[in-house]
Specification:
- Helices cover 66% and strands 1% of the residues.
- With 468 residues, the chain is mainly α.
- The chain has a two-stranded parallel ribbon with strand order 1-2.
- 56% of the residues are buried.
- The model has no long low-confidence stretch (mean pLDDT 90).
Length: 468
């Protein structure tokens, strides 16, 4: 590598030429601050968001109003770290996973990058499978789900390979047709909605509330490991408060609206029965059946919404691979993006058949690590650095923290996850205390608390040892 700092041409044409190198504050040309909103609005105004909300009543056995309350509260909590990390993009000019180096050190950041690569691939698998299901549903099975998976993956990869400028250009407008479509579906479906009573308050209800809340939180906070990737080209003086609130609303608004819509769909018994197989495509097909041929067109466009959701996964995957070391950084980001696309397609094709049985658990499992990771970075920023970074240190291992405090704290956080997780194949000892044998999922909460306490103690020790 010739330099750790790059300058961005005002109008970069073709495939983005740089990767995780810091963007020089003097040459940043991305001045559309509203892109902080539309980027995330498009990425979340998609069918997988509806699918998550549809789990509330049939899977978690909740009622209407308690589901709405959980959707609002846990989305707000989940979006907070994403919105905060987004403010670091213009401030530091660094990608999100490289910012991890200031807490985790060189080796620790590599480990976290591996976690993030797995998350990028995992969410990509989820999204293309849901899109493939929808393609199969709208074609009456004539177009198999595997063909839909390949089509959607190809479209996603095309946008992701071109990079930052083209990602924003696509996401700037992708939300518009989706907003119109979901408004039409609401108009068609609203007469069938019913208010499902809230179950009697007890252990089962508490377990359902927290477990569904964990899925909602995990879906929203899943963007936190990508957050700064999409505004590093914005001017350093961009107001942090505006970046924060535009990002917050860009995720919070579509997640609350579409998760509530998905939940409301399953309040109608015939549609809930259709969703009993866990296929979101079948549920949406049932909703638009009264529209005839126009409903088929709507489903086709809805399948394309997967592209807007998957583009951030694919683009950030390429950046995360470069964090693995200088040798990986020398390989062009687009190559890693393409490689990741091939991998997630190879996983999605055989996994599609059994996907309905594992959607709930996957939505939770894939995001468990983000709670401990986020609290460590937040504490590093506010408690230990007080917002001050020597950004020139970002790519020099000897000038970064050793990172053992963050890694050990991460282990404590994951232990908390294991104690409090409640999944089909595993229920932690603390989770078992409520609503046995299914348990009450408090893995996120325990992970954040244990990691936070451990880091407050261990990071001080690490700093004192280094001073000596």
């Amino acid at each position: 590598m010739a330099s750790d700092v790059v300058t961005i041409p005002e109008l970069e044409k073709g495939v983005e030429t740089h990767g995780i190198e810091r963007v020089s504050p003097k040459t940043r040309s991305h001045v559309r601050i509203l892109d902080n909103f539309t980027m995330w609005l498009s990425a979340n105004l998609v069918i997988s968001t509806v699918g998550l909300g549809a789990l509330a009543i049939p899977i978690f056995q909740l009622g209407f109003w308690d589901s709405v309350a959980i959707i609002i509260i846990f989305n707000a909590l989940g979006v907070l770290p994403v919105a905060f990390f987004s403010t670091l993009g213009p401030k530091l000019g660094l990608r999100q996973m490289t910012i991890s180096r200031f807490a985790f050190g060189w080796v620790g950041a590599i480990i976290m990058a591996i976690f993030n690569i797995a998350a990028c691939i995992g969410w990509s698998v989820v999204n293309v499978i849901i899109g493939g299901q929808l393609v199969a549903a709208l074609s009456g099975g004539r177009v198999p789900s595997w063909a839909g998976i390949l089509i959607l993956a190809a479209l996603t990869t095309f946008v992701s390979i071109y990079g930052y400028k083209y990602v924003h250009r696509y996401e700037r407008y992708a939300w518009i047709p989706m907003a119109v479509i979901f408004a039409i579906m609401l108009f068609v479906a609203a007469p069938h909605f019913s208010i499902i009573p809230t179950p009697a308050f007890g252990a089962a209800e508490i377990a359902g509330l927290l477990s569904f809340g964990g899925a909602v939180y995990g879906f929203a906070t899943g963007w936190s490991s990508y957050a700064a990737d999409y505004n590093v080209n914005q001017p350093e003086e961009t107001p942090a408060s505006r970046v924060f609130w535009l990002t917050f609303l860009g995720i919070f608004v579509p997640c609350v609206l579409l998760e509530t819509l998905g939940m409301a769909f399953t309040s109608y018994a015939p549609w809930a029965k259709v969703f009993s197989n866990g296929l979101v495509g079948d549920l949406l097909a049932a909703v638009v059946t009264p529209l005839g041929g126009f409903g088929t067109l709507i489903l086709a466009l809805l399948a394309l919404s997967v592209v807007a959701n998957n583009v951030p996964n694919d683009y950030s995957l390429g950046l995360s691979v470069q964090v693995l070391g200088h040798r990986f950084q020398r390989v062009h980001r687009s190559i890693w993006t393409l490689t990741g696309a091939i991998i997630y397609v190879l996983i999605a094709l055989p996994a599609a058949a059994n996907f309905a049985k594992t959607l709930t658990d996957f939505l939770l499992i894939i995001a468990y690590w983000l709670g401990p990771w986020s609290i460590i970075l937040i504490l590093e920023h506010f408690v230990f650095r007080r917002g001050q970074y020597n950004v020139d240190d970002w790519n020099t291992p000897s000038r970064l923290p050793i990172g053992w405090a963050a890694l050990v704290s991460m282990v404590f956080g994951l232990v908390g996850v294991l104690l409090g997780a409640a999944q089909v194949y595993y229920v932690g000892p603390i989770a078992k205390l409520v609503n046995p044998p299914y348990g009450m999922d408090v893995g996120f909460e325990l992970g954040v608390v244990l990691a936070g306490i451990a880091y407050l103690i261990l990071r001080r020790i690490e700093l004192n040892v280094n001073k000596r």
